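Why predict the complex rather than its parts? Because the way molecules touch one another can change local conformation, and only a joint prediction can capture that. The input here totals 473 residues.
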Amino acid sequence: MFWFSFEWIWDMGHMVFMGGLWYALGIIGLGMTYVIIKTILDTFYPDFFEPGPDDHH
Amino acid sequence: MDSVLFPKGVKRCSLPMFLLGLIPVVLVLLWGVYAMLLCWIKGLNQTNMNDSYGFALWIWADLAVIAIGGGAFFSGLLKYVFGKDELKNIINYAVLIGFICYSSALLILAIDVGQPLRSWFIFWHANVHSMLTEVAFCLSCYFAVLTIEYIPLILENRKLNEIPFIHNMSHNMHGAMAVFAATGAFLSCFHQGSLGGVPGVLYGRPYAYREAILVWPWTFFLYTWSAAACGPCFTILVTKMTEVITRKKLVKDKVIHLLAEISGWMILTYIIAKIIDTIYWAQVTAPLMGFHWTEFFDSARSSLTYHGQWILYLEIIGCGIIPALILITKKGRQNTGALWFAVAMATLGVCINRWTMVMQPMAMPVMTFDSWNLYLPSWQEWATTILPVAYGIILIAISYRYLPIFPQESELNPSD
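Output of the joint prediction:
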């Protein structure tokens, strides 16, 4: 349920319950997004997180 | 034939023998699927549930598998949050068992709701005053977490891991696992607790009703505590059973004993809390509602009836105090027979606890003109409850064969 649904009420019950659900889903979603992006970079751009030879002075 | 898929340095039986061994389990699975389809196609008239037993065998099975699946969240919490690194050697199996338990719980719920196509209503049209809404939210989110924890194991299959993308994916998922494990522990604590909260708030059912701290009845905390205490025992029990079936040592005793010791102390503290809760309920809560505690047990006819007092003593003494005392002592843990007995009894204890809190309140007369209700599940209910067991055995067998579930296996079995 989102805040634009007709049955939404701005009360503590809705904010805590639905906020908790979005919070958990947010962490899971962000965590997996980070993993997938890092995997793409590691696989196809292996030097992305490594300092290049010119960076050492 | 499929030996290239086996984990490195281990031996497995031949493929035909493996498939032959699975046949009886697959037959049981098909029996369960047939019963499940009957329930979906013909409806819940296939069950023996009635107006008294709206919560029946399925709900007990749900609560029981969720409790014994608690080994996954508690082991994850111990390893990733409290730094018990030794548990890395059993965490994979704990995750697999947790994954099986939670997928089974969701499967049983999908049959129980009667209209699975409307399952999403609970998310979109959520009743924010219901403990069960919190359970549904946390259960589905935690199942997502368990899936995320199980995926790296699949990706670590020897052949799959040769693909660079999959290798990196697995590596990165392991890297982020602490975040998922902490989220899983948070979600798990809340849904275990809310499942306990459901009977605890039933003031019309004085057997289950308990006083509350703010909105949470005592049963909220007792359920979380008991799942954390007894879940690891089920993990140890299944590990030991797997060792017997495979005739191999799969996890070092040191790891098992560490988990058993932590579990033992958790059971001991839980059972003390449970005894205090029971005494308070018998001496204060029940009399305030006009009952003597013995009236809640169907002991008028015989001391060994369906809902007799024996079940209370079995849960607290036989499945609580005794296993706890065995597991907290070094001698008890090191004795193989005693360890087997303790983990089996602790697992049984948490299942009995869920049974008494789900079934017993349903059986008791609520009105003066009511009598004790008895309920015997239909064969469809039995079949669909046994279905997850068959599914679990199959998934464990396949995972054990092809995935590196036990990191210490090759070291412990050098002849492989």
